[in-house]
Design brief:
Distance between the termini: 15 Å
Structural class: mainly alpha
Oligomer: single chain
Helix content: 55-70%
Order of helices and strands: HHHHHHHHHHHHHHH
Strand content: under 5%
Shape: globular
Number of helices: 15
């Protein structure tokens, strides 16, 4: 989801025959907008630490999506930077989390990862006039359709795993234990994982991409916590990261990738992080009646809207 200089792209493309594996590893990091090989490796390590099923399906989804991009002759520079693999990574995790580890889930992960590449191209074409990227929308569309339709098919649906159910009401007080868990869980929930130590590993990976990246990830997590608490969200949902992961993505995207490093842009990025927290609740309520999932839609809609608005807000400017 980030861009690189042409000479970097050429170097990445020249690393044969390891280019495919390196591109796949970068695809994991691109979920957080980072093409750093070290960031991708750290995040992937965190996913495997979360559980072998999570790690396996994340790896499978990324590998298949990257391979499909090669097969469809997608721009090699885009592939090398991991731009074609991140949606497949998230799709694999979403499907095993929602459907469980069954043979059908492997098939759907392969099909879903391939469809992510096709949708990535379609959305990139549609959004180009607005200077927007698809971000994680291919993942949301593919995973959302599969998960909503899954209960209609006996060979696909085996009952929702207990891990995907969540509390919707509860205490709105806040404790130190809830705060520090929320800070790290907000980072890990970007990958649909609730685990403070996985979030810590991922923050280390983001730090390897640069101080600006990890600081904005941290700022987004804090903004999500504060906004959710002020709005009166249940403590349990704040602590497990449900209300903060979109804020983390918005903060990284606007604060460290798409906008120039200015004070006004920084305030704008924090505003986006807060807005995405409220939107998370709204979209969760919207999807709930028909069994849909919020995934990263709040991040996508918030970031798209604020980036389009920049064109008519003179105090704000995009990064060069």
């Amino acid at each position: 989801m980030s861009l690189a200089e042409p000479d970097l792209v050429r170097r990445l493309e020249s690393r044969q025959p390891s280019a495919y594996l390196l591109a796949s590893l970068r695809g994991v990091g691109q979920v957080d907008f980072q093409a750093s090989l070290f960031t991708g490796a750290a995040i992937l390590a965190g996913l495997w630490a979360a559980g072998w099923e999570t790690g396996l399906f994340a790896t499978l989804g990324t590998l298949i999506a990257t391979a499909a991009a090669y097969a469809l002759a997608v721009d090699r520079g885009s592939i090398a930077l991991g731009m074609q693999g991140f949606a497949g990574c998230l799709t694999g995790i979403a499907l095993v989390s929602s459907l469980g580890n069954h043979p059908a889930t492997y098939v759907l992960t392969v099909v879903g990862a391939i469809l992510c590449v096709v949708l990535m191209a379609a959305l990139a074409t549609l959004l180009a006039p607005y200077r927007l990227s698809p971000m994680t929308a291919p993942f949301c569309l593919v995973s959302g359709v599969i998960v909503v339709g899954a209960p209609s098919f006996d060979r696909v649906w085996h009952g929702a795993p207990a891990a995907v159910s969540s509390t919707t009401r509860g205490d709105t007080g806040i404790t130190w234990n809830a705060l520090w868990h929320a800070f790290f869980n907000n980072v890990s929930q970007v990958f649909l994982v609730e685990s403070w130590y996985v979030g810590l590993i991922m923050l280390v990976g983001l730090a390897l991409a640069g101080p600006r990246v990890v600081l904005w990830a941290a700022a987004g997590s804090v903004a999500g916590i504060v906004a959710a608490w002020l709005l009166g969200a249940p403590t349990a949902l704040i602590a497990n990261g449900i209300y903060g992961y979109n804020a983390v993505l918005v903060a990284i995207g606007l604060g460290a990738v798409f906008l120039a490093p200015t004070v006004w842009n920084g305030i704008y990025a924090l505003l986006g992080a807060v807005a995405s927290t409220g939107l998370t609740a709204s979209l969760t309520s919207f999807f709930k009646p028909f069994g849909g999932h919020t995934f990263t839609w709040p991040f996508i809609l918030t970031t798209w809207t604020l980036l389009v608005a920049v064109e008519l807000l003179p105090r704000l400017r995009r990064s060069d």
